[in-house]
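Support request from a user on the community tier.

User writes: "When I paste my structure tokens into the form, the page sometimes reloads and wipes my input. The last time it worked, I copied everything first. Here is what I submitted, just in case something in the input itself triggers the reload:"
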């Protein structure tokens, strides 16, 4: 039978949707999954990964990587387009919130080098023992754990152009293991802190809807956003997505124009930063729309739904794109680097979390989820110890992304230094040591590294 139109992209999207639906069902029905707060997108991704390798589902890996890359870019663009309400702007602020946000950003400035140094040291060791691992292999630890699947995929695809075979799959594997740390270590860590009485506010049982992940029939519904277009003219969602499309085109043009002025190696690397440039372009577009008096048409609620949708499908495609045959070839170095990176990250975060002035457990689990998964993982873990987000920690995480921009973006350049500028692994690691020293120094200068509050506990 001749099919007159190409169906592959939409069939792949359909399978992503099916896996997500199964993940939602499993989260709603299985207590073990609820206990560890496994998000449906991660469950669906793992199930999809198994289905692909068993031959039940057939999707090209390159297509899944393409989905993941573009959903990643869209998530940042929609963040850049999101207009905060006057109430949200009023909520952000104050010295305490500023200090909490800065503390979490500085913790990232420490955990990133810890993960990078772990990866670098083990690559030197494995290559000494006879392995022939690409020089940036170990730097997937900070990319996959702290920076997330989108960055691991983007930079991985760039590294493939420099001769690092299967880099994207290896990067996605590191990111997937990071998520497992976020939930299998983060949830017990949060529950342990609750049992020790380390929460700031009296604890309440997590609502059933939160555990199951499905709003029950009799529960009140939250608004997903507001209509800013008359449906007789155009749907609001169509308008909001059109803004995303506009920014995507502008960003594509900007990256192409800048790339044409650079050397081919740097131009290739620039595509790994599409998400960041997209967010900047989105902020410019948003500012222009507000300036000309049409800011009310860009609804923050709907844009947040676009962000959330993009992250869900990003994680789905990320996990499903992992090629187990490739992973098996590098299973020992991946396992060792991930295990040691995860362990050291846990030790560092708990050590620093025990030494801050307030909201110790809340800030600790929030940043732990972030430096092993994504900001969404951090919010999920925070919800365990602060079910109603009554502390300032959730808002601090918004500010944190601003302060952490320097170490995060710096890391994306540093991990590529060996291929871009010919740096040795040792030199790159030395610069990461400098990042760690600066972050620790700032913690001390701002008096955020006190004595252990729980030494006798």
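"...and here is what came back when it finally went through:"
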């Amino acid at each position: 039978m001749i099919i007159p139109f190409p169906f592959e992209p939409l069939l792949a999207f359909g399978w992503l949707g099916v896996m997500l639906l199964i993940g939602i069902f499993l989260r709603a029905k299985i207590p073990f999954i609820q206990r560890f707060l496994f998000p449906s997108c991660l469950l669906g991704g793992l199930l999809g990964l198994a289905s692909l390798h068993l031959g039940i589902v057939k999707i090209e890996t390159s297509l899944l990587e393409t989905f993941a890359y573009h959903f990643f870019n869209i998530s940042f663009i929609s963040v850049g387009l999101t207009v905060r309400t006057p109430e949200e702007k009023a909520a952000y602020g104050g010295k305490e919130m500023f200090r909490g946000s800065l503390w979490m950003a500085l913790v990232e400035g420490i955990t990133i080098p810890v993960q990078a140094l772990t990866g670098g040291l083990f690559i030197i060791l494995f290559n000494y023992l006879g392995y022939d691992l690409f020089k940036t292999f170990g730097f997937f630890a900070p990319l996959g754990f702290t920076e997330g699947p989108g960055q691991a995929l983007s930079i991985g695809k760039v590294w493939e152009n420099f001769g690092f075979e299967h880099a994207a799959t290896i990067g996605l594997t590191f990111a997937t293991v990071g998520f497992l740390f976020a939930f299998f270590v983060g949830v017990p860590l949060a529950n342990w802190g609750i049992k020790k009485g380390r929460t700031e506010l009296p604890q309440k049982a997590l609502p059933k809807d939160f555990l199951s992940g499905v709003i029950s029939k009799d529960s009140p519904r939250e608004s997903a956003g507001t209509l800013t277009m008359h449906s007789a003219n155009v749907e609001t969602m169509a308008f909001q997505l059109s803004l995303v499309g506009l920014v995507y085109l502008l960003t594509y043009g900007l990256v192409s124009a800048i790339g044409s002025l650079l050397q081919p190696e740097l131009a290739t690397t620039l595509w790994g930063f599409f998400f960041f440039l997209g967010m900047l372009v989105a902020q410019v577009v948003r500012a222009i729309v507000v300036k000309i008096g049409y800011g009310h048409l860009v609804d923050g609620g709907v844009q947040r739904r676009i962000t959330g949708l993009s992250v869900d499908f990003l994680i789905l495609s990320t996990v499903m794109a992992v090629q187990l045959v490739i992973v098996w070839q590098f299973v020992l170095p991946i396992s060792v680097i991930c295990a040691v990176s995860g362990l050291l990250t846990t030790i560092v975060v708990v050590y620093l979390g025990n030494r801050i002035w307030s909201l110790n457990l809340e800030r600790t689990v929030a940043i732990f989820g972030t430096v092993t998964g994504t900001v969404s993982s951090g919010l999920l873990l925070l919800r365990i110890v602060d079910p109603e987000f009554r502390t300032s920690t959730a808002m601090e995480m918004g500010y944190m992304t601003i302060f952490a921009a320097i170490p995060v973006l710096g890391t994306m350049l540093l991990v590529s230094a060996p291929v871009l500028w010919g740096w040795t692994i040792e030199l790159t690691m030395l610069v990461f040591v400098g990042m760690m020293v600066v972050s620790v120094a700032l913690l001390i200068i701002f008096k955020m590294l006190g004595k252990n509050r729980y030494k006798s506990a």
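Agent notes: The reload is a front-end session timeout and is unrelated to the input. The chain has a mean pLDDT of 90. The longest helix spans residues 95-128. Escalated to web team.
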